[in-house]
Amino acid sequence: MPALVLLGAQWGDEGKGKATDLLGGSVDYVVRYQGGNNAGHTVVVGDQKYALHLLPSGILSPGCTPVIGNGVVVDPSVLLSELSGLNERGVDTSKLLLSGNAHIITPYNVTVDKVTERFLGKRKIGTTGRGIGPTYADKINRVGIRVQDLYDESILTQKVEAALDVKNQILTKLYNRRAIAVDQVVEELLGYADKLAPYVADTVLVLNQALEEDKVVLFEGGQGTLLDIDHGTYPFVTSSNPTAGGACTGAGVGPTKISRVIGILKAYTTRVGAGPFPTELFDEDGEALRRIGGERGVTTGRDRRCGWFDAVIARYATRVNGLTDFFLTKLDVLTGWEQIPVCVAYEIDGRRVEELPYSQTDFHHAKPVYEMLPGWSEDISKAKSFADLPKNAQSYVKALEEMSGAPISAIGVGPGRDETIEINSFL
Ligand code: IMP
């Protein structure tokens, strides 16, 4: 029962789409377990480039069943337009399964996300504005709307009423906005019911049966470890658990079923939105990483903040996720630097610190301690094996592996599906 979790080891955007898609051919089910359309995967298949936000990247592999688990928050309009966009390009999406327990991002959740961010001013989180946080807040406050509610008009109406009761007070009295009408929301949501019906399923049962039958199930995390609501750089985080434990709660599969946890690790670091980032660069090196790496958000179109590799973060990701392997991505972006700095520890108020501090004050004060590694200038995009890499690129990978605490089992050397070096098989 090979059940693999694949997740971002940094602040997201590590190139998970490529990794998931690479495995997609041998995987029976690809499951998203948290987040929503705040995620963004770019998957390159042949000369076609696909940008996915909500759908699991397994949707592009014909033999694979894509699953949206109970832990995901779903904007129905985004889901339907992503599906029709793929259908127009000839991709069969009929196998998709959508958990009836997944929560729905309603139009008022999107409004609340945007209004709250504006209200926070310079203290804002820099959210994607897609209603993710407010939808998870409703879930925890037990006033959320679930996919299954679309099939009972009376229950749906009661739930929307309950959710808007307090929100309308806040919107009108605090934020000076107009109240949102219950019947309009109910009508809009009911309009999605028939279109979503073919996909709605008891995904927990389906996945556990699949594991019993020895099928290969891949759990695909959105965002990344440092954006985790519990283990990330709170409050500058997303509102769900991208870390490995989230796969169990967000898909309804017990921890004893998970056989491997793979961390996607970019050969340098990026972050979108606000929050601390010790190795961030504000010079021409940062600009070069952004340009060469194409570091612009798939979902938001925002420029990503860029910096050198941070081994303290990688070690932390190994620990909180119980990583068994790393998939190192975008090594090719570093080609051309004479020397490459790697952060091996932090200096915090005059002390050298080897591990990620739990105190946010300390983390805000953390300055990177760099070790310089020799760079390479040869084109590595055609490398098929580790031995094909220039000596200095090999040493860079080996150094990262040693510092990060788990074996690097695959290396991305270019954006294409086949531009990957496999060292140890994931299956
Ligand atoms: P939210 O998920 O829209 O609430 O945004 C919370 C924080 O997570 C913001 O800093 C976003 O930029 C960041 N974020 C959300 N999704 C992603 C992602 O897929 N990649 C990178 N950052 C993300």
TrEMBL record:
InterPro entries: Adenylosuccin_syn_GTP-bd, Adenylosuccin_syn_Lys_AS, Adenylosuccinate_synth_dom1, Adenylosuccinate_synth_dom2, Adenylosuccinate_synth_dom3, Adenylosuccinate_synthetase, P-loop_NTPase. Keywords: Cytoplasm, GTP-binding, Ligase, Magnesium, Metal-binding, Nucleotide-binding, Purine biosynthesis. IMP binds at residues 13-16, 38-41, 128, 142, 223, 238, 302. It is an enzyme of class 6 (ligase). Binds 1 Mg(2+) ion per subunit. Its cofactor is Mg(2+). Pfam families: Adenylsucc_synt. This is Adenylosuccinate synthetase. It comes from Streptomyces chartreusis NRRL 3882.
